[in-house]
Structure formats: structure tokens, C-alpha cells
Amino acid sequence: MKPSVLGIAGWSGSGKTTLLERLIPALGRRGVRVGVIKQTHHDFELDRPGKDSHRLRQAGAVQTLIASPARIAWIRERQPPRPPTLEELLARFDAGDIDLILVEGFKHGALPRLLVHRRATGKPLPEQDAHWIGIVSDECPQLGLPCFSPDAIEAITDFILSRFPIARETTT
């Protein structure tokens, strides 16, 4: 079965990553295997200068796989640099290993998403989007959508599981 995909959207500082940090283990306790895509507009490094993988990339390798018994990392140099599409990133997941992909970013993609909003950011609610399925906020606007407190992790988890077909086994 193809994994379900849910976007997590909101202004910078709204609590998207904090919500994900709490949702991932809550979903895991319910037997849901979660993958995450984190979009960033900043450059980043996975390896360190002087390490073999970094040296091989510096030598011109356009794709590098780093593998250990515990994890595998794939690094692809994009020349010229250009933003990857959500579809391109989703295709990289091993669908047999995950049930749900949570996407932080790609706010303009056509995927169902939870909006995360905090009054303390000083930013207004973004213009309502037809893809919003619910809101996680310290104040619930009257938009006709389910709204959850950021602390209501179990209720948010229940809501997600009610919306997406995920075959899962509960773990204790």
C-alpha cells in the first residue's frame, strides 16, 4: 500500500517541528511507521570536512550513499542548484517501510495539510487554503475546520488516523 501523505504548514516559529517531534512518537505507539520530508531554503551538510564521504563528494561524485548497519544516507548534488519537487522526494521513500509521510514545507503543494499557528509569532493566519484539513493553534479561528491545541497530541493523532487509511498494529 502506498503511504499516505500529510503536510504540516505554518509560519516560521509557529511550532511545526515541535508538533512533529511529538506526533511521530505518538503515531509510532499506534504502530504507524512515519517518514518525514523537511523542506529548507538553506544549504546544509550531512557529513563533515575530512571524512571520506565528504572527500569523495569534493572529488566530484554527484551522488553518494553512506551506509552503516543502522542507517543509510543518500546525498545528491544538484547542479545547477534547483528546488526538488515534492513528487521527486516522495519517490525516494521505500514505500514498504512506512505508512505515513509527514511533510514540513511545500506549502503550495496540492496535499492535505494541518495548519500550525501561534499567536506569539505576531503573524496573521495565512489565507485559507482548500487543502487545510485542520488547525493546530493556541487560538481556534472560526473557519469551519477541526482545531486542536498544540498540547492535544493524542486528539491530533486520532484525527490523523481517522483521515488516512493506514494499516497498523498497536505497540505497547
Uncertain segments are none
User: What's the helix-strand series?
Assistant: EHEHEEHEEEEH
SS strand fraction: 15-25%
Structural class label: alpha/beta
State the domain count.
1
The name of the CATH topology is Rossmann fold
CATH superfamily: P-loop containing nucleotide triphosphate hydrolases
Strand count, sense and barrel status of the largest sheet are:
6 strands, parallel
**CATH C-level:** Alpha Beta
| Helix segment tally | 4
- The percent range for helix content is 10-25%
Q: How confident overall, as mean pLDDT? A: 87
End-to-end Cα distance: 24 Å
Beta strands, count: 8
Globally, the shape reads globular
Q: Can you name the CATH architecture? A: 3-Layer(aba) Sandwich
Describe this entry's structure for a reader:
- The protein has 172 residues and is an alpha/beta fold.
- The protein has a single domain (4-44, 83-163), classed as Rossmann fold, CATH 3.40.50.
- 22% of the residues lie in helices and 23% in strands.
- The chain contains four helices and eight strands; from the N terminus they run βαβαββαββββα.
- The chain has helices at residues 16-29, 52-58, 86-90, 153-163, and strands at residues 4-9, 34-38, 63-67, 72-76, 100-104, 113-117, 132-137, 147-148.
- It has a six-stranded parallel β-sheet with strand order 2-5-1-6-7-8, covered by helices on one side. A two-stranded antiparallel sheet has the order 3-4.
- The two termini are 24 Å apart.
